[in-house]
UniProtKB/TrEMBL annotation:
<feature type="domain" description="Non-haem dioxygenase N-terminal">
    <location>
        <begin position="13"/>
        <end position="93"/>
    </location>
</feature>
<dbReference type="Pfam" id="PF03171">
    <property type="entry name" value="2OG-FeII_Oxy"/>
</dbReference>
<dbReference type="InterPro" id="IPR050231">
    <property type="entry name" value="Iron_ascorbate_oxido_reductase"/>
</dbReference>
<dbReference type="Pfam" id="PF14226">
    <property type="entry name" value="DIOX_N"/>
</dbReference>
<keyword id="KW-0408">Iron</keyword>
<dbReference type="InterPro" id="IPR027443">
    <property type="entry name" value="IPNS-like_sf"/>
</dbReference>
<dbReference type="InterPro" id="IPR026992">
    <property type="entry name" value="DIOX_N"/>
</dbReference>
<protein>
    <submittedName>
        <fullName>Predicted protein</fullName>
    </submittedName>
</protein>
<feature type="domain" description="Isopenicillin N synthase-like Fe(2+) 2OG dioxygenase">
    <location>
        <begin position="121"/>
        <end position="195"/>
    </location>
</feature>
<keyword id="KW-0479">Metal-binding</keyword>
<dbReference type="InterPro" id="IPR044861">
    <property type="entry name" value="IPNS-like_FE2OG_OXY"/>
</dbReference>
<dbReference type="GO" id="GO:0046872">
    <property type="term" value="F:metal ion binding"/>
</dbReference>
Length: 247
């Protein structure tokens, strides 16, 4: 595969600093921060969150522990099963993907684009190891892939999801993202996913629906939508959501 000519290098995402000790609920600073987050997600769908509560040492320890998990025997890993989509050990699926790639032993470095992903839930919060150039975000106009290059080793990337997009009646943009592997160094990422409660019907709040902003989507069940997108990897952008439940 080849890197798209439309990929821009580099891009620094909008950064929001959450490290202030005065950032507490029901304060002016809290309200100001909430408005800033909302405005940023409306325009970009993601941002870099600066937060000093998780040290670089802690992040390093997490990724070192993950290495131990990856080195467990295969029979131990495949015993981690789940009836839920995208849960449990997925190593065999990854191996099947790798087998379709041909990489010469003489090549010292390479770049491969992995599958494009969307965020279906409310929010995703990601942290990466020191391979910082892998993640890319698709712009709102759908024309460009831009590098999500963090400005600090201790920062996180926050990405808005389709469920939040529906909940706010299209008020935030849920961007596609992808990973491009470069070189020979392993890339690791850890994610925190804000999921709807099982059985919850996602519907736009009445306060964001009026004559000027009519309801854009039908109420939908998150798990059902998840399965809809899982059946076809092409159903991984905002058009899939519109196909599934737009009015």
């Amino acid at each position: 595969m080849t890197i798209s000519s439309k990929t821009q290098f580099p891009l620094f995402l909008p950064a929001i600093d959450f490290s202030s000790q005065d950032l507490k609920p029901e304060t002016l600073e809290w309200d100001s921060m909430r408005a800033r987050v909302r405005k940023t997600l409306e325009k970009y769908g993601c941002f870099e969150a600066l937060f000093d509560g998780a040290s670089v040492e802690l992040r390093k320890a997490v990724f070192e522990a993950s290495e131990e998990v990856f080195h467990l025997p295969l029979e131990t890993k495949i015993s981690t099963k789940s009836d839920k989509l995208y849960k449990g050990y997925a190593g065999q699926k990854i191996l099947r993907f790798v087998k379709i790639l041909y990489i010469s032993k003489n090549v010292q470095s390479f770049a491969e684009q992995l599958i494009k992903l969307d965020v279906k839930h409310f929010l995703t919060i990601l942290c990466q190891n020191d391979v910082v150039d892998g993640l890319e975000i698709k712009t709102k106009d759908g024309e460009e892939w831009t590098k999500a290059k963090p400005t600090q080793d201790s920062s996180f990337l926050v990405i808005a999801g389709a469920s939040l997009h529906v909940l706010l009646n299209g008020g935030v943009f849920p961007p596609l993202h992808r990973v491009v592997i470069t070189g020979k160094k392993d890339r690791h990422a850890a994610g925190l996913f804000l999921l709807p409660k099982e059985g919850l019907i996602i519907n736009a709040h009445e306060e964001v629906v009026d004559d000027v902003h009519p309801r854009l989507y039908k109420p939908f069940d998150f798990e059902a939508y998840f399965k809809f997108t899982y059946t076809d990897t092409k159903k991984r952008d905002l058009s899939a959501l519109k196909t599934y439940c737009s009015l």
